[in-house]
Design goal:
It is a single chain. The strands form two sheets. A seven-stranded mixed sheet has the order 3-4-2-1-5-6-7, sandwiched between helices. Strands 9-8-10-13-12-11 form a six-stranded mixed sheet. It has nine helices and 13 strands. The protein folds into two domains: 144 residues, NAD(P)-binding Rossmann-like Domain (Rossmann fold), CATH 3.40.50.720; 185 residues, 2-Layer Sandwich (Dihydrodipicolinate Reductase, domain 2). By secondary structure, the chain is of the alpha/beta class. The structure holds adenosine-2'-5'-diphosphate.
């Protein structure tokens, strides 16, 4: 299989290369693309140095194109890239709500990927992490309402977000006044209840992505979802406190049992041993950690839980590669014959 990464020099691009190294996909060729600024740079892959090229404005000659260079670039160019005959697995929000573009978390709705017409969307990271845990609960107990509060890492804003956290923390520790560029306020020693821009309904776009994308992935618009998204001064891994009202009551033990058999989930839930999900333990892990599973004090038979998932992996790079693996397993990747 011939694979291309657009945005190879970015935070998600870096993770894509790591995940591809370990993936079961048989990769005959890997093409790396970024902005013209990065053309000529080399990046290591499986013991070889591969050269980064400027992103083409026309067809890309590959079977799978993993795109993570941002929404505006994908919006302008992804259809052109797909004219090369490959499938674009797009990490941006450019196509997520388009009819005819599947929005896929393979453990939850992998079969939707098979209906693609050249582009498959990778969900927003916060949503991808939540639905891995919530989808099996929804299937078995019927989620009526879902209330989410997030604790989101700076790498949600890419490599520049992580750089800003580190640099501005140094500034502040040195006695200076931390500045900000990627975030609305200085991020060191702060939490910022704004991720992305505000919309007319006073929610942020990030918060509404959780609503829209949960509906699309679970195929259920009747589910009531509300989210508060908060940026915190960590480098990677998003955490989320989730409250679920259920059609059919469930006990914490039943949920623990269900999630212990759920692909992509690691139940980490033993308060007596101080065992619960955290960025400290979930970073770098493929599975989403789920813990603090307890009976809701608000909704009879409802459930409260806490999840931590490496959003650069399950929320982005890993999920994209898993979509490619799923397509390959199903024999749904056309090998591009034009080379
Ligand atoms: P570059 O490193 O050359 O700027 P992140 O999300 O970590 O900020 O990464 C964004 C990725 O998108 C990087 O690989 C970046 O490349 C790439 N990128 C940014 N602007 C463009 C562009 N105009 N065309 C193609 N790739 C771009």
């Amino acid at each position: 299989m011939r694979v291309a990464i657009v945005g190879a020099t970015g935070a998600v691009g870096h993770e894509l290369m790591q995940v591809l190294e370990k993936s079961k996909l048989q990769i005959d060729e890997l093409q790396l693309y970024a902005s013209p600024r990065s053309a000529g740079k080399t990046l290591p892959f499986k013991g070889k140095d591969l050269t980064v090229q400027a992103t083409p404005e026309g067809p890309i000659d590959a079977d799978v194109i993993l795109a993570s260079a941002g929404g505006s670039i994908s919006k302008a160019l992804a259809h052109r890239w797909a004219e090369g005959g490959g499938v674009v697995i797009d990490n941006s929000s450019a196509f997520r709500y388009d009819e005819g573009v599947p929005l896929v978390v393979p453990e939850v709705n992998g079969e939707a990927a098979l209906k693609h017409q050249g582009i498959i969307a990778n969900p927003n990271c916060t949503t991808a992490i939540a639905v891995v845990a919530v989808a099996p609960i929804h299937r078995k107990y019927g989620v009526k309402r879902m209330i989410v509060s997030t604790y989101q890492a700076t790498s949600g804003a890419g490599q520049k977000g992580m750089d800003e956290l580190l640099e501005q923390t140094r500034v502040q520790l040195g006695g200076g006044v931390a500045g900000h560029k990627e975030f609305a306020y200085p991020i060191p020693f702060n939490v910022i209840p704004q991720v992305d821009v505000f919309l007319d309904n006073a929610y942020t776009k990030e918060e509404m992505k959780v609503v829209w994308e949960t509906h699309k992935i679970l195929g259920d618009d009747s589910l009531k979802v509300s989210c508060t998204s908060v940026r915190i001064p960590t480098l990677r891994t998003h955490s989320e406190a989730i409250t679920l009202e259920l059609e059919r009551p469930a006990t914490p033990d039943e949920i623990r049992e269900l999630l212990s058999h759920t692909p992509g989930v690691e139940v980490r839930d033993n308060p007596a041993e101080k065992l619960y999900p955290m960025p400290l333990t979930a970073s770098g892990k493929y599975d989403v950690e789920v813990g603090r599973i307890r009976q809701s004090l608000v909704f009879d038979g409802g459930i409260d839980l806490f999840v931590s998932g490496d959003q650069l992996l399950k929320g982005a790079a890993l999920n994209a590669v898993q979509i490619a693996e799923y397509l390959q397993e199903k024999g749904a990747i056309k090998e591009n014959q034009r080379a």
